[in-house]
Amino acid sequence: MYARDHALIATPIGPIRVEGDEMAVLRVTLGADGPIAPGTTAAVRAAAEQLIAYFAGTLKAFDLPLPTLASARGRALRDGLVALGYGETASYGELARRFQSGPRAIGQLCARNPLPVIIPCHRVTAAGGALGSYSAGDGPATKQWLLDHEQRHR
Fold first, then answer.
1. Which of 18, 20, 69, 136 is the most exposed place for a label (fewest CB within 10 A)?
2. Are strands 90-91 and 124-125 parallel, antiparallel or unpaired?
3. Which residues are known catalytic residues?
């Protein structure tokens, strides 16, 4: 088992804490407290640098080591969500059809997402394009900011 490392970065939506170890980025917390810190492990430093580039509008896709999920189905759903492109949105129902799943499974995947922004749950909308909920940061206000940001930098 590796020791946990963290970075804390300043972003337009507030401070973000990145946690991880030598192997992977494990958690991203929007609205974290504490002093700015770069992190010491390669995974955490890379995540902090890529998040800064994302918020600058210069990074469209993350390339980071993520934790291995226990089930093949969980990995497939997460990979499918990651494949939802920068500036694109899809509804829970649309993703459920794409991934041969149920809308509730997509909702649970998003609600339990430990890596907001990196795993782009903010790109998942309710039926008819309605914003829907968001479990990170300030909820729907953060989700709207992220979607607007991606539209500006497309």
1. 69
2. parallel
3. 121
